[in-house]
Amino acid sequence: MCSLCILDFIAIALKIFCMTKSFFITILLVALTFLPARSQQAIKIIPEPVSIIQGAGSFELPKEIKISAPATKELEQTLKFLRQKLSTATGYTTSGVADAGGAHILLELTPGDQLGNEGYSLSVTPSKVLLKAHKPAGIFYGVQSLLQLFPPAIESKQVVQNIKWEIPVVEIKDQPKVNWRGLMLDVSRHFFTVDEVKQYIDAMVRYKYNTLHFHLTDDEGWRLEIKSLPKLTEVGAWRINRTGTFNSFGAPEPNETKTYGGFYTHEDIKELVRYAGERFVNIIPEIDVPGHSLAAIASYPELSCTPGADKYQPRYGQPIMDWSHGAPPIALLDNTLCPANEKVYGFMDKVLTEVAELFPFEYIHLGGDEAPHNFWEKNAQVQALMKREGLKTIPQVQAYFEKRVEQIVKAKGKKMMGWDEVLEGGVSPSTAIMSWRGEKAGIEASQKGHYVVMSPTTFAYIDYMQGDISVESPVYAKLLLSQSYKFNPLPKGANTKYILGGQANLWTEQVYTMRYAEYMTWPRGFAISESLWSPEEKKNWNSFVTKTEDHFKRLQYSQTNYSPAMYDPAVSVKKIAGQYTVELIPEIGGLNIHYSFDNSPPDNFYPQYKEPLVIPKGASQLRVITYRNNEKVGRMMNLKVDELQKRVK
Fold it and tell me: Which of 264, 379, 407, 642 keeps 20 to 30 A from 558, CA to CA?
């Protein structure tokens, strides 16, 4: 029913029935329920705000936008960012005004603590936008939500024509569920430039992440300049260049040059810290020890207590660990710093002195994960250490190492964090834990009074495949978008007083470029951000999928890569009574799945999947495609029959 028809209906009803005042009010209220419904725009903010009350009408951006904001240094970048976003895609002009009454967009810092350090309130009326927060970070996050109210084209890097730049009338009150909302970027396996890291930061802050975990060292490369230890970057930052499937490369050729790599100078780090800080992002550095230290040992072989370490070089992707017996792995070469070698602690003191000076964040992450034991078990120096210190087990040897390096960290005025393995031999109560092997270690650590960041593989390892192996680069595990969305950083049984928050981790053995790093991060980064920011009761999978599709458009305009894997069905194979059957399981609703066994590429005129498919005799390939409303949305999946049969357990 149109709004004009409703008003005509009211007028006619008044004439014919001479209705009472109360009856008139009743009909008017019924009519008004129709009027806003036609003008409302769907609100698709990620992460979902705490409270949204949508009204009738909209605010249309004027061609000359006047913005009022406090003149504080902490808000300079926020204001610059807002003006740039509002002008680039629209072609409109922006200007600052001292008179708040004459502003179209008003940013205010107000006293109080109801919304905390990062919360905000956003009020949009037909004539004005008012954004309030108690702290500058809240203004910054409110700006992200404000921009997400505009059409996706607001993210364009050039002027977009024929767009009505309007946002819905709305009242939003918002603040985060947890304080630590992180993404980890592994720059050791593959080096990313300063500009590429800035690009990653720009993408993460759109979704209210506030912590970048910077994995700076590993077997494959040492990426941080340590001026007192120059060989770390002269030797440890460079390796043989091999491209393909990591962990499968063969032996090096004679005199093969080490030309692949890079590192960050002190000035680079200062620039990244400055850039991140302006966007309210903390950078936590990780120096991964005592395992994952091959690049350091290649630079300074005396850090090892294994003969032959002087022949080591940074790993270029060849197998160096045997995981067939579970954890800890069996090392094929010794990639650990020697816990019985006093030179190691002098080395760590030099490294941590410069790390502490470069990174203002209160924590330094010192790894501690996946340290193999087989070389330590046979080493005379380690055995002597155990006898001298009364250590009964190899995990206690690692705990000895961790406690000593923590004292160095404390001496630099910092706090230590490590992966959950550091708990195994006993560790200082002041050590914070990053729980990655599921939730159990994090829950138990919080109960013992350790501060914890939840980062379980089951929800937050975004280096895993996000779809079927037929359309994804092969990795040993899979993590679907829907599974990431189930992440709760405050799991049942945890002492939430000690849960700092959570994060997703992007390990980059198979991630060679920033373009692919983006593909692996988004949209699972949407799911993790909503899990870290939004109240659990506000999360809704179907609503999230709708929002995700809107944000795909935003990423397209911003030229940010993402994965469309949610449109591809999961594939399950069974063998029943000698016949192989294939089940295709869509991750989201509303999809039609079409298939062929005759090797031709199916479209929406091919048979539609209705029930598990029996593989016909003689078929060599199943090909699958998904459509919605007769529009192709999925990728062509080419599933070889012999490979499908191997999936049966």
Answer: 264
Q: What's the rounded Cα separation, in Å, for the pair 502 and 440? A: 14
Q: Would the pLDDT of 41 be above 80?
A: no
For residues 176 and 161, what is the distance between their CA atoms, to the nearest angstrom? 35
| Diameter of the chain measured on Cα atoms | 104
Strand blocks (E) in 269-391: 282-289, 321-322, 330-331, 363-367
In the beta sheet, which residues pair with residue 283? 212
> Is 328:368 a contact under the CB 8 Å cutoff?
no
Which residue intervals of 94-193 are DSSP H helices? 136-149
Q: How far apart are CA 489 and CA 454, in angstroms?
A: 6
Task: Assign 602 a pLDDT band (cuts: 50, 70, 90).
Answer: very high
Instruction: Give the integer Cα–Cα distance in Å for 269 and 147.
Output: 29
**How would you classify the pairing of strands 221-222 and 621-628?**
unpaired
* All residues at 6 or more sequence positions from 153 whose CB lies less than 8 Å from its CB, including other chains: 89, 160, 163, 557
Residues shown for the chain = 649
| Catalytic annotation present for 267 | no
Mean residue pLDDT across the chain: 93
pLDDT in the model for residue 427: 86
- The residue behind tokens 């010192």 is 366
* Residue 644 contacts residue 615 (beta carbons within 8 Å): yes
Residue 59 belongs to what H/E stretch? Answer: strand 51-60
Q: State the pLDDT at residue 42.
A: 86
**Alpha-carbon distances, residue 34 vs 5, 28, 356, 376, 626 (angstroms):** 11, 10, 61, 74, 36
Q: List, in sequence order, every residue forming a beta bridge with 214; answer none if it has no partner.
A: 185, 285
Known catalytic residue at 642 = no
Q: What local confidence, expressed as pLDDT, does residue 255 receive?
A: 86
* Per-residue pLDDT reduced to its tens digit, 241-262: 999 999 999 999 988 999 999 9
Structural element, H or E, at residue 88:
helix 76-88
Quote the CA–CA distance of 586 and 566 in Å, as a whole number.
Answer: 8
Q: Rg for the chain (alpha carbons), in Å?
A: 28
Residue 98: pLDDT band (50, 70, 90) is confident
Local confidence band at 40 (pLDDT 50, 70, 90 cut-offs)? low
Residues whose CB falls within 8 Å of the CB of residue 537, separated by 6 or more in sequence, listed in order: none
Report residue 483: phi and psi, to 5°.
-75, -40
Catalytic residue chosen out of the listed positions 186, 334, 370, 568: 370
Q: Quote the CA–CA distance of 274 and 279 in Å, as a whole number.
A: 9
Which residues lie across from 185 on neighbouring strands?
Answer: 214, 506
Q: Where are the beta strands (DSSP E) in 114-232?
A: 120-124, 129-133, 166-174, 180-186, 211-215, 217-218, 221-222
Active site residue 218: yes
Give the global pTM: 0.93
Q: In terms of DSSP bridges, do strands 129-133 and 120-124 run parallel, antiparallel, or are they unpaired? A: antiparallel
- Which of the following is catalytic: 213, 215, 292, 373? 292
**Token pair of 176, please?**
């985060």
Backbone CA torsion sign across 108, 114, 119, 124: negative
Q: Which residue is listed with tokens 């029930």? A: 611
72/63 Cα distance (integer angstroms) = 26
Contacts of 274 (CB under 8 A, 6+ apart): none
Evaluate whether 260 touches 241 at the Cβ level (below 8 Å): yes
Could you tell me if 120 and 52 are in contact, meaning their C-beta atoms sit under 8 angstroms apart? Answer: no
Closest of 563, 391, 542, 372 to residue 464, by C-alpha: 563
Residue from 48, 218, 225, 278 carrying the catalytic annotation: 218
The structure tokens 């280096």 sit at: 463
Dihedrals phi, psi of 574, to nearest 5 degrees? -130, 155
